[in-house]
Amino acid sequence: MIEQKVEKNLREAIYSRDEILKTALRLMLSELTKNKKAKQPEKEEKVIASMIKRSEQSMRIYLEQDRQDLARIEEEQIKVYRKYMPEEISDVELKTKLIEVLGNSKAEGPKQLGTFLKDTIGPLDGLASRKRISEMSKSLLAAYAKRKESNAK
What we know:
The protein has 153 residues and is an all-alpha fold.
């Protein structure tokens, strides 16, 4: 679905002669096509998220090397990529979903973070970044362990 939208927008970018947009869309189309041909294709959103992450890393390196011109191009490409990503859920919605998963999980504190993340990443993938999920999970498990400890006393 995203691939067809990218193809359509690429044609428009070619006619409008927007070089940054055209380059970003070509890269995205290439990555999506390559992913589709892979033995175990990933969700389109996941492919685009990895492209965003790669561009952010490149932008950081360019800024460290004092190459604002290249960093600006990466920044513009990131903006294009983000247009094709679904909106992330709010912190309140994320916390609600994590609490639901916690109710069904065997995790009882921060030590079981890995187990808890295995349960949460799948259903929440694409709805929120893995970093956000991980950070909120850590704080939620810590609070859960404290509450459980205080109830035991």
